[in-house]
């Protein structure tokens, strides 16, 4: 044993990093605070918002909360979003389609007969559609003239 030596044992403890779990409400509060600083205003009366993607899908918001700040060129859309195919939304969104979306729709319409030929998508033939519509067997103009006489 050595006298006079004062050896102190070193103990190194691993420190754990404290993990902070953020809730969605905390994030929403931060977002609302940031939007308030931008000076956004609520826009009322918006029934639906549709965002058209390049892949031919539509991000659809039904009864969203819409806010805008024209000075900051910022718009926010909050609410429940659904991703739908463009064909699911037809014909109700035809008046909302821009030139790019109309081109996508045209390409989609051209692709349907090709898929039907490959057996991927069933498509109704003209004969099947005619089963529901009766054939016209008489001329109504002549019948109305006969009734008038």
TrEMBL record:
Belongs to the NAC-beta family. PROSITE patterns: NAC_AB (PS51151). InterPro entries: BTF3 (IPR039370), NAC_A/B_dom_sf (IPR038187), Nas_poly-pep-assoc_cplx_dom (IPR002715). Pfam families: NAC. Gene3D superfamilies: Nascent polypeptide-associated complex domain. It comes from Collichthys lucidus (Big head croaker). Residues 25-90 form the NAC-A/B domain. This is Transcription factor BTF3.
